[in-house]
Amino acid sequence: MHLLQKAIPIEHLLWLSLQKVFSKIKDPLYSEDTLASLNSCQAFGSHVNQQNNYSEITGINGKPKTPENVLDIKNSGTTLRILTSVASLAEGYTVLTGDKFTTNPSHARSDRCTLPLGVSAFSTRNNGKPPIIIKGGFKGGKTYINGNVSSQYISSILMASPYAENSVDLKVKGDFISKPYVDMTLDLMEKFRVYVDYERTENSFHIEPQIYRSKDYTVEGDYSSASYLIAAAAAINSDLTIKNLVHNSNKAINSSWT
Q1: Coil, helix or strand for 117?
Q2: 233: Cβ–Cβ under 8 A, 6 or more apart, which residues?
Q3: Cβ-based neighbours of 247, under 8 Å, separated by 6 or more
Q4: How high is the pLDDT of residue 118?
Q5: DSSP 180-212
Q6: What does the alpha-carbon distance between residue 246 and residue 258 come to, in Å, rounded to a whole number?
Q7: Which of 1, 72, 213, 227 is the most buried (most CB within 10 A)?
Q8: Adjacency order of strands within the sheet including 71-72
Q9: Percentage of residues in the chain having pLDDT higher than 90
Q10: Are 100 and 63 in contact (CB under 8 A)?
């Protein structure tokens, strides 16, 4: 049985769209979240060739165009959170909306921490819920974010920071509860040859202006999905072979297996 993973393709698709040249992602999972991200990549100017077992993406070199229309990210909260910083690299204004499942008021926490970086994002109804309007202008600078928020808010800032006008210093305050998932983001940034100065004891990040470099990528299997299949196979005393699980994976969920 061949397993696919969900969260990494969403971030990875956005990474590929930020690059300058052509790249390929193999074994993507075409869930609604992934399709929402693919549509967003195209709206920001990337060319996407979507096939059954791979997608080819020609990137925009960190210079997304302003989408012509409101971006409907459906019920993909991951896409909404990650695009907040990425959209700030485009000129003009970008509007993100979704369905009732993405109307989480915690988005306001991200808005406050990105303001010092020149990123202006606000809710049209001033309640922290979509629709969200993002004004272009990722200047860089210093800011902080509380450690009890979703890792996707932190990853969003980290992902866009290499294309800021100036260096970015981000500090996570309090209990850094999502550190393993942010480690996944840092691992992928390294794969795309972007250097992040990460002080683990201080929970602080420093990113100089850089560019992501082309890399084909195969999506790893998901350990959490595998656990259900393994449990079922054990319950009925049967043999099961699961492919595409990487032993030295940096996935946070793998930490419970090692």
Answers
A1: helix
A2: 239, 240
A3: none
A4: 87
A5: HHHHHHHHHHHHTT---EEETTTTEEEE-S---
A6: 12
A7: 72
A8: 71-72, 93-97, 132-135, 120-123
A9: 28
A10: no
Backbone angles phi and psi of 145, in degrees to 5: -145, 145
Closest CA to 5 of 214, 216, 232, 252: 252
Q: Do residues 6 and 29 lie in contact, with contact meaning Cβ atoms separated by under 8 Å?
A: yes
Tokens 């485009």 map to which residue? 90
**pLDDT: which is higher, 215 or 234:** 234
With beta carbons less than 8 A apart as the criterion, state whether 107 and 129 touch.
yes
pLDDT tens-digit map of 44-92:
999 888 888 888 888 888 899 999 999 988 888 888 888 888 899 999 9
Residue 131: cis peptide before it, omega within 30 degrees of 0: yes
Contact criterion met (CB below 8 Å) for 9 and 3: no
Nearest to 149 by CA among 119, 128, 118: 128
Calpha distance 123→93 (Å, rounded):
13
Of 156, 137, 153, which Cα lies nearest the Cα of 145? 153
Average pLDDT over residues 141-151: 90
Burial class (CB in 10 A: 0-12, 13-18, 19+), 125: exposed
pTM score of the predicted model: 0.80
Cα three-residue angle 105-31-45, rounded to 5 degrees: 80
Structure tokens at 78: 């991951």
Query: What is the token pair recorded at 73?
Result: 């990210």
Task: Report how far residue 76's alpha carbon sits from residue 35's, in angstroms, rounded to the nearest whole number.
Answer: 9
Per-residue pLDDT at 95: 94
**Is 102's pLDDT higher than 80?**
no
